[in-house]
Every structure is written in C-alpha cells, then in structure tokens.
C-alpha cells in the first residue's frame, strides 16, 4: 500500500468496514444525537466511527445503505469509461444500476456513484459532510443519498440518478435548442425551495456553493441541490454570522463573504441571485472570453435589472422573445434584490419562492409560434403523408417524409406581436404554393 493510502487510512479509524458498523453504546455522542440533527460540529477525529454508525442506525438515517467497494465496482462495471458521467471537486462520477438482488429492501434503479479523489481539492471532511447532511435532510428539491462506502482508503457516495444532468450543461452546453422560459422558472423555483429548506431548519444550514453545476435535473426538469461538501451549520443563538475561510466558486460568492469571511444564509441568497441572472441572460457568471467589466455577469447586467425599458439587453436572445414580459420584469427585479451589496436588503429564500411561483401562471403574454403546415408535393412521386415533430420551443422543427424516410429541418419563425426583439415577422410568407412548407398565422 502506498504511503498516501497508509496516511489516509491512519487518519480514518479502521473500524469503518462496509456492512459491519460498530456501535459504541456508551458513547456520549450517541445520546446527544438521538434527539436532534447531527451536525459537523459534533465530529472529531476520535469519534468519526461512532458518529457514522449512529447516523446509519438512527431513525433519520436508517434508510442509508452501507455498500462494499466490490458491490459498487460491480454495479458500475468496474467504473468503466462507458459509465462515466463527469467530474467535480470531489472526484469522478459514474452511472451504475442496482438490481433487486443486490440488497434486500433496495429497489432496482439507476444510480450515480461519486468516487473521492485522494488528490482532489476536497477530502474526507467534505465526503463526511455529504453523508451527515444528505443522510438526514429529506426534501423533494435535495438530491437523495442512497448510501455510501467507507472501506479502507475508499470513500464513495451513491445517489439517485438524475436523467438530465446538471443545469450548467442544460443552460450552456445544450444542443438542439435552448431551455424554454417556463422551464427556466420551474428550475429556479425548485432550487429556491431547496435552499429554503436548508435555511428553515431548526439549526440552519448554509449551502455555501450554490451554482448551476450543483443543481441537478430529473426527467421533468425538477431541480435538486447536490454536492454538500462545503455546506456548514449556520450561526446559533445570538450569533449573527459565522466566520470561516472563504470557500466556494468565483463569480457566485457574496461580496461580504469574500471580503470578511462572514457567512450567513444571505450569502446563499446572493448566489441564488447570480444563478437567476444566468437563467435570464443565458450567460455564465464569469466569462473569461470577454474583457474587463464584461467578464463578470453581475457587474455587466445588474444596472439593467430594474429598468424595464432595458430588459431586452438582459434576456437570453436564444429565447427569441418567447417569454412573459411581466414575468421577466418580476424575475429581473427579484434578481436585483438578491444581488444587493447589503445582505440585510436581500429577501429570504422563503420570500423568493413566493415571488417566483406565481410567474408560472403568467402565460397570456408569451408569444406563440406559428403552426407549420406541410403541403404534399404534386406529381408522380406524390407523398402520401407528412408529419411535423416538435420538442418544446426548439430552434427548429424536424420534418419527416413518412413515405420515403427523408428528413429535413424547417426553421421556426417567432410571431411578431409588434415586439422589436422578435425580428421582422415572416418575410417569406408569400412564397409560391409550390414550396413544400407554408407558414400559417394561426397559432396553436
């Protein structure tokens, strides 16, 4: 065994063995956590083993499964490249599949397995934070932790599998169209509810690393917060803040936290404001390809957020005007409030949720694209049937010729509604009927 592995094993008590948790019944820690949520402040190097055993066997964390490394190796096909999903500060993530024979009471399901990188930026404490927080906190907008592996030098986490990956990928790397307006609002609401859940705990939890890559999405675009490695318990009693070493991601951290190290739940609210601005603009919080002030998203667009006449400068051009003007104004005003330099002027996450939820009902002023009718070709090779397929509000429609299997793209046109942001309408509306595609004004 390498010196690195020996050192790591020495740091962590060897009593961690998969499927064989040891419970010290005389431990004072066990008595203390039985009536309240376990926190990181309860931990010390000499009691880690007991704490995790208590967690996995407590009423709150009893549904956590302790996996062996060989089991996780099996369900990921030896962590094969074909199952590789991505990599973060913690380590690499692989897709796996648990069948109903692996563990009694554990249903067959796809999972995501995160492997701690011993050379990475995050270490054993961050791995433990994930187990502590996600093992006890349950909410529809927090990713579900199914179990963990703590065997010799191995540290792994097993989560529910999220079909659509993270928001960073969907917003900035998505191919075949952009995220529709209402989908963006739905994601913002889900993420806000996740933060609100943490902040409203009896002992508040500060997430500390809220960003697009830590917001996972299921098949219905329900947002769930993941990666709790930097999460920390909030101030208690008369304390107004906690002071920590500045950690997080550049572009998302609140200015007062960067300057003083003072951390509160309002620090998370600022980070949420950055993500909300990313959803509005379709731009990253920091763009290294730009110069000067334009690199920082907040510095560039915050001045426009309260001016409704400058809303067009803010909104993502890929939306092509397909959004509610009223909803966009309210979302922009909310982002401006969250991004206030004065933490006391920022709203609570509960207030953020209440502001965002009604925006899902503002649909009357969302422009609707035209119905595309495919005219059958005349002549010897007459086509028997045509069909138009659409997905959401994608930039193009796929038109298939069912008879001969041909496929082509038909550019979609946004309906004018007299908005300058939507271009000049349909310039080619009066084309000859011999064209295979006719754009109709009738909205469907």
TrEMBL record:
UniProt keyword terms in alphabetical order: ATP-binding, Cell membrane, Kinase, Membrane, Nucleotide-binding, Receptor, Serine/threonine-protein kinase, Transferase
Localization terms from the record: Cell membrane
Biased composition (Polar residues): 431-444
Region of interest: Disordered: 411-444
Membrane-spanning ranges: none
UniProt keyword annotation of ATP-binding present: yes
Keyword hit for ATP-binding: yes
Known EC number: 2.7.11.1
Primary residence: membrane
Domain Protein kinase: 79-360
Any one of the GO CC terms: plasma membrane
Catalyzed chemical reaction(s): L-seryl-[protein] + ATP = O-phospho-L-seryl-[protein] + ADP + H(+); L-threonyl-[protein] + ATP = O-phospho-L-threonyl-[protein] + ADP + H(+)
Pfam families per record: PK_Tyr_Ser-Thr
InterPro entries: Kinase-like_dom_sf, Plant_Ser_Thr_Prot_Kinase, Prot_kinase_dom, Protein_kinase_ATP_BS, Ser-Thr/Tyr_kinase_cat_dom, Ser/Thr_kinase_AS
Any GO MF annotation of the entry: protein serine/threonine kinase activity
Coiled coil stretches, renumbered: none
Bias type Basic residues, positions: 414-430
Annotated binding of ATP, by residue: 114
Enzyme class label: transferase
Family in the record: Belongs to the protein kinase superfamily.
Protein known as: non-specific serine/threonine protein kinase
């Amino acid at each position: 065994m390498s010196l690195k592995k020996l050192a790591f094993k020495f740091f962590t008590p060897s009593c961690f063995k998969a499927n064989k948790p040891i419970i010290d019944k005389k431990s004072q820690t066990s008595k203390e956590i039985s009536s309240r949520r376990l926190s990181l402040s309860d931990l010390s190097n000499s009691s880690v083993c007991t704490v995790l055993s208590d967690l996995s066997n407590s009423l709150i964390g009893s549904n956590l499964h302790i996996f062996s490394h060989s089991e996780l190796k099996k369900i990921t096909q030896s962590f094969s490249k074909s199952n590789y999903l991505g990599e973060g500060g913690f380590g690499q993530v692989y897709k796996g599949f648990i069948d109903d024979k692996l563990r009694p009471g554990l249903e067959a399901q796809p999972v995501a397995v995160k492997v701690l990188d011993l050379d990475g930026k995050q270490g054993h404490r961050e791995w433990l934070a994930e187990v502590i927080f996600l093992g006890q906190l349950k909410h529809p907008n927090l990713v579900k932790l199914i179990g963990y592996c703590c065997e010799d030098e191995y540290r792994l986490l097993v989560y529910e599998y999220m079909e659509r990956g993270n928001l960073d990928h969907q917003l900035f790397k998505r191919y075949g169209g952009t995220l529709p307006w209402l989908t963006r609002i739905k994601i913002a609401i889900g993420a806000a509810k996740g933060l609100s859940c943490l902040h409203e705990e009896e002992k508040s939890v500060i997430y500390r690393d809220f960003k697009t890559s830590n917001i996972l999405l299921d098949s219905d675009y329900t947002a769930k917060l993941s990666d709790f490695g930097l999460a920390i318990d909030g101030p208690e009693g008369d304390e107004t803040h906690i002071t920590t070493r500045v950690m997080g991601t550049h572009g998302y951290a609140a200015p007062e936290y960067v300057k003083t190290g003072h951390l509160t739940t309002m620090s998370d609210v600022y980070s949420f404001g950055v993500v909300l601005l990313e959803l509005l603009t379709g731009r990253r919080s920091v763009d290294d390809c730009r110069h000067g002030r334009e690199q920082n998203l907040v510095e560039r667009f915050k001045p426009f957020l309260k001016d409704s006449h400058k809303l067009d400068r803010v909104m993502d051009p890929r939306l092509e005007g397909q959004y509610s003007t009223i909803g966009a104004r309210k979302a922009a005003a909310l982002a401006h409030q969250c991004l206030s330099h004065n933490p006391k002027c920022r709203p609570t996450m509960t207030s953020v949720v209440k502001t965002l939820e009604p925006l899902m009902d503002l649909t009357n002023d969302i422009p609707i694209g035209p119905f595309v009718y495919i005219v059958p070709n005349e002549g010897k090779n007459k086509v028997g049937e045509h069909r138009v397929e659409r997905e959401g509000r994608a930039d193009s429609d796929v038109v298939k010729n069912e008879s001969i299997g041909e496929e082509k793209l038909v550019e979609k046109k946004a309906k004018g509604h007299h908005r300058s942001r939507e271009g000049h309408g349909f310039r080619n509306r009066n084309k000859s009927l011999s064209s295979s595609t006719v754009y109709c004004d009738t909205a469907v």
